Amino acid sequence: MFARENHPVNWKLRRRIRTIIILLVLLQGIILSVCQITRPLVAAPVEQAVEPDDVISGHHEMEHVEHLSDEQRSEIEAQLAQNMAMLTTQGKLAMRVNRETAVSLNWPLQQASGFNDYGYHGISFFVDHNGQDYSCDSRIYGGHRGTDFFLWPFEWNKMDDNAVEVISAADGVIIHKQDGNDDRSCSIGGKTWNAVYVQHVDGSVAWYGHLKIGSLTTKNIGETVQAGEYLGIVGSSGNSTGPHLHLEVYDINYNLIDPYQGSCNPLNDTSWWLTQRPYYDSAVNKLTTGTAAPEFNSCPSPEISHEATQFTLDDTVYFSAYFRDRTNSLDSQNTIYRPDNSIFDAWTDTQRSSHRDGSYKSRPVTIGKEEPAGQWRYEVVFNGSTYQHTFQLEETTPNNTDEFIYLPIVTNPKLID
Q1: Structural contact between residues 328 and 353, judged by C-beta atoms closer than 8 angstroms
Q2: Phi and psi of 84, rounded to 5°?
Q3: Distance between CA 60 and CA 158 in Å, rounded?
Q4: Cα–Cα–Cα angle for 233, 237, 240, nearest 5°?
Q5: Which domains, from first to last, does the chain contain?
Q6: Are 232 and 166 in contact (CB under 8 A)?
Q7: Cis, bond preceding 300 (omega within 30 deg of 0)
Q8: Which of 10, 132, 284, 395 is deepest in the core (most CB within 10 A)?
């Protein structure tokens, strides 16, 4: 009746084949388990890097404002001439006219102690050369005689915190100081700035304008300063629409100098900088995590950065990158790393405008309760450099409050159907 009984050899063969198949299935399961245990951590699949729709963008913009009226310039020039004559009589000025001893200018800004952003500035305008800047581009406005270094990001916060110091670009003697003027200007109108004026050993003179009220060096007119020595805090005094340094340079014969060498600078053949930075000094100034996108309020209200580094796993975290001199040829690669260094998310952001002297990108991301707590990392690769920012994610605190269930009170059960 059964094949097993009528054909014993075939039955034994079939039983052996079935046993072999079972063993092969079990062996396959063991191999897969071992591979799962021993394989290294790999990143979760990440979609092709394109700028997500939820990326928020913004940029810095400084109005074209003439820093000094003709009358103000005349007054400053007269005061400088008077002070220099007095200091020369006193033997406090060494007037060297030999161009072989010409000074080279150091960078005129530095972060104050306790501040460690990747960067803190941008350049809005250079010296005007008949409608062009030194590089034959248009980062100027008519009649501008200096270089404008603005603070970025959060210029008003930086000014209020004394975060960026103006320092002497070369050794010299203080020949004039102006202080006591309002430093929260947002417009033109004949306002007087706060400034320090330094004559260098070769007779050239540097003007450092728009400084914060009460921040000027305590050194007096006639005292010497060294290259890199503190002169004041970047402010917005005088004709100004935001905190920035206006640096203006003249040679010993009072000829205007553009410290940047370039094919459209007819004033001087060589650079006056000790090290001239590139025209597009493209970099990331700051990375932040926060509870919301940054708020840039109208002048002179401080900005609200919403910065934070402590979050719970179910929080929405805003990842923000602040750039200087970004061009539309420079994308940035953004990556969020888990504590085990695996990738949680990655995206690329772009810029449509040909150039922004200061800009930012911010993106909200919700991590999720299923992810591990610990120290996470936000990383941006931009223009060949890598920038990092760490933040802490903690497990969501459970709600331990008592919960009550309200039930109806039945007074007469017999009346209920």
Answers
A1: yes
A2: -65, -40
A3: 15
A4: 115
A5: 70-257 (2.70.70.10), 284-394 (2.60.40.2550)
A6: yes
A7: yes
A8: 284
- DSSP helix/strand/coil, 195: strand
Name residue 391's beta-bridge partners. Answer: 376
The H or E element spanning position 12 is helix 8-38
Distances (CA, A) of 268 to 135, 215, 243, 313: 13, 33, 29, 58
Hey, is 292 helix, strand or coil? coil
Residue 224 tokens, joined: 């010497």
User: Beta strand 224-225 with 230-233: parallel, antiparallel or unpaired?
Assistant: unpaired
pLDDT tens digits along 253-277 = 999 999 999 999 999 999 999 999 9
Give the three-class secondary structure for 79: helix
CA distance 261 to 247: 16
C-alpha of 174 from chain center: 32
Q: How far apart are the first and last CA of the chain?
A: 64
Burial of 157 (0-12, 13-18, 19+ CB in 10 A): middle
Which residue bears the tokens 């017999």?
A: 414
Question: What is the token pair recorded at 12?
Answer: 């034994």
Strand-pairing partners, residue 273, are 105
Residue in the structure block whose two tokens are 């260098």: 200
Confidence label for 22 from pLDDT (cuts 50, 70 and 90): low
Separation in Å, CA 39 to CA 31, 36, 183? 12, 6, 61
